[in-house]
Design brief:
single chain; globular
Length: 182
């Protein structure tokens, strides 16, 4: 596969995966009545714009193409698995102030507590592999911090809900973004 062909493949994969994340999230998550999405969620658009820009202007090192593309493919697979698992259930936007009404422990939720956030992080790791540099490293760090804060906030909501004891046991057997190995 020539460099030009590889470059176009990477462009297409990056746009499809990040586009699907944004479009899929908009269709999957709901606003809590009376709330507006937090402005912090605009960082997704900024991060994705930086990554797409890098995909359009940077040449890809062929040695980094397989791990980077594999990361994007796994990100999309995890995102779709999580999205299909929650179909028909109310899931609010990140940083919403609602209390959880149920604990989902099937599908990817049987292994990790935050599969959507993990899928986003995996895409940003893949971008940092494909397009090494300060911009993609900055995106990875910025989004890592944002998604960790979002996950901690979601977890604190469970601790203040009627599901606190059930969630505590669930938390002990699952990882936040990576499955527990024990």
């Amino acid at each position: 596969m020539g460099l030009l062909t590889l470059h176009h493949l990477v462009e297409v994969v990056v746009v499809i995966v990040l586009g699907r994340h944004l479009q899929g999230a908009a269709r999957t998550f709901s606003l809590v009545k009376g709330e507006r999405p937090t402005p912090a969620l605009q960082l997704f658009a900024i991060a994705n714009a930086i990554v797409i820009y890098k995909a359009l202007v940077m040449r890809v090192d062929p040695r980094l193409a397989i791990p980077g593309l594999l990361g994007f493919a796994c990100s999309l697979a995890l995102f779709e698995f999580a999205r299909r698992t929650i179909r028909g259930k109310f899931f609010s936007y990140a940083f919403s102030h609602d209390l959880p009404q149920f604990l989902l422990t099937s599908g990817p939720y049987s292994y990790i507590r935050n599969p959507f956030y993990a899928s986003y992080l995996l895409a940003y790791v893949a971008a940092a592999i494909l397009f090494p540099g300060i911009a993609t490293l900055g995106v990875l760090v910025m989004m890592g911090i944002l998604l960790t804060k979002a996950a901690r906030y979601e977890e604190s909501k469970f601790q203040h809900s009627a599901l606190a004891e059930e969630y505590k046991a669930y938390k002990q057997r699952t990882g936040r973004f990576i499955p527990r190995l024990y």
